[in-house]
Amino acid sequence: MPAKKDKLSLLREYLGNDDQQIKEMLELFLQNIPNDLNELSLVCKKNDIDSIQKTAHRLKSSVRFFGLDDVATLLQQIEISSKEQPDFEQLDKLTKQINKLMEQELIRFEKMLSLF
C-alpha cells in the first residue's frame, strides 16, 4: 500500500516548515476557497467566459499549493475548454465535480488545522 501523500508538502517547503505560517495559510485557504468556488459556479452559470478563465486560473494556483492536483487538473480543463469552443454544459459538470471533491478536501483540511 503506497504511503499517503502529504498534501501540505509544497506549502511546507515554500514556508520552510514553519508551522505557524502553515497554519495561517491553511486558515486563509479555508476562509477564502468556499467563496472562490461559489464565484466559479456563478460565472459558469452566467456563461461569462473571461471570468471563468480568470477564476479557474486563480483557483488552480491555490489548490496546487495545497496538494490538490486532481482539482487543479479539473480547473485546468475548465480553463482550456473555456478558451477554445466552450461547452457550457461540460463546464457546469466540471464545476460540480470540483465542488464535490472540495467538500471532502475541506473537511480533511479542517481536521489538519485542528492538529496545529
Main features:
mainly alpha, 116 residues, Four Helix Bundle (Hemerythrin (Met), subunit A)
Unreliable residue runs: none
**CATH fold call:** Four Helix Bundle (Hemerythrin (Met), subunit A)
Amount of beta strand: under 5%
When the domains are counted, the total is: 1
The profile of the biggest β sheet is:
none
How far is the first residue's CA from the last residue's CA? 27 Å
What does this structure look like?
With 116 residues, the chain is mostly helical. It has a single domain (24-114), classed as Four Helix Bundle (Hemerythrin (Met), subunit A) (Up-down Bundle), CATH 1.20.120. The protein is 79% helix and 0% strand. It is built from 5 helices and no strands. The longest helix is centred in the first third of the chain and has 27 residues, at 19-45. The radius of gyration is 15 Å and the shape is elongated. The model has no long low-confidence stretch (mean pLDDT 91).
Overview in brief:
By secondary structure, this protein is mainly alpha-helical. Helices cover 79% and strands 0% of the residues.
Topology (elements, then pairings):
Layout: H1 9-14, H2 19-45, H3 49-65, H4 69-83, H5 88-114
Helix pairs in contact: 2-3, 2-5, 3-4, 4-5
